[in-house]
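Please, structure for the following, as tokens.
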Amino acid sequence: MLTADLAPTVGAARQARELVTTGCQRWGMPMLVDPACIALTEMVNNVVAHARTPMTVRLAPQDSTLHLAVRDHSSRLPTFAGLSPPNRAGGRGMLLIDTVARRWGSSAIPDGKVVWCVLHPDDEVAHLG
């Protein structure tokens, strides 16, 4: 497992992507670097834009999957209302996560929430064909 405590700043997403690249290389999951970077960038950017609290990012391989989680200190759970109107700026973060992850969700905890997703290498192989 890899963990990083990040401040809610613009540079947090870049730090999270570096963690993804390191983890995916270490765990032999190079095909998950891009989708994991997309998902984690959106989760981190949601904290920066909405929660505005320090966050903890965790990545962990489990069997053949990659689990990503971001914990923050806001009790406001993310919403996913489907497709965002094309003339609306923003609002597509959870749609991107829904596109690259097989499963995702959020869990309320006493002092905030955890937003998580699970990525499967098989999903990436299917997109290559």
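The radius of gyration is 14 Å. The first strand starts at residue 2 and ends at 6.
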